Amino acid sequence: MAGILENMTTDTPARLLQLLSLLQTPREWPGSELAERLQVSGRTVRRDVDRLRDLGYPVQATMGAEGGYRLVAGKALPPLVLDDEEAVAIAVGLRAGAGHAVEGIEEASVRALTKLEQVLPSRLRHRVKTLQSATSALVWGGGGDGASIATETLTVLASAVSGHERLRFSYEAAGGARTRRLTEPYRLISAGRRWYLVAYDLDRDDWRTFRVDRVGDPFATGARFAPREVPTGDAAEFMRATVWRAAPSYEIDVTFEAPVAEVARRLPEPLGRPEADGPERCRLRATVKDSLEWVAVRLALVDVDFTVHGPDELATHLRRMGSRLTKSAQGAGG
Length: 334
What we know:
Blueprint: H1 2-8, H2 12-23, H3 31-38, H4 42-54, E1 59-61, E2 69-71, H5 84-99, H6 106-119, H7 122-133, E3 135-138, H8 151-163, E4 165-172, E5 178-191, E6 194-201, E7 206-211, E8 215-224, H9 235-246, E9 250-256, H10 260-266, E10 275-276, E11 282-288, H11 292-300, E12 306-310, H12 312-329
Parallel strand pairs: 3-5
Antiparallel strand pairs: 1-2, 4-5, 4-8, 5-6, 6-7, 9-11, 9-12, 10-11
Helix pairs in contact: 2-4, 3-4, 5-6, 5-7, 7-8, 11-12
């Protein structure tokens, strides 16, 4: 029987890649299960594991009747085996890292992206380029909660943008009402922890900005269109303007018990800049369109005493946050 199994899988490089792909799953594999998956004998599995070790893969074996194997962390990073979805996700992430102003990763992202794109199959390279060409990045200091989005949703939207195809989808408004939309998608915008779609809404005969995490069941109709010109001339600026206009605004008024230079150095730019109110005190008055939870956290991270004069909602968030933090620390040994 072992000889029959050996003859069924004679392509050693392909078998090693398949074995490596299995071992990269975070679990321990019994030798018998690996042999069954690979359609080889237990002896061949042990021999292939030794080959992987020779190539630098830290495969750990455990004693016992089954002889389990798992891949552990090593001293150096060996080559990885990625499936199609993983390769596309990494390539898109590297492109984003190379294009954003995140200190220290731009050059490394470009190097890694170059290596990956050299070995990507043409079908995957096309998917990556389609998603990237349909996407704009918006550097925004906004807070708020991020929402997970299925890769398939982004791929469908990006393909419709790139191919100039009309797009249908359901959309959930902020109040929970769900409607069907027929649009001419113009651009995907990545803004911090959220994605937005700028599109011309055919039913409403006007431009709209849609939060992608509220988009459901998108599909391209196959009907082509000639792209219209977005009102501001730039999709990211249009998205910023429409989202800013729709967001609630708050008048922040806070006094800090610290010099203005110290506070200004620790405040994020979207909150504005404080003004001196004496040598050891400063005051921040600003209009913000953001999550008050985020504002409360950022004020606390300044790490100096401060007093909130308004709005009342901000003071409420801070009291709740303080209560949670105090309660969390009560069990830490007095």
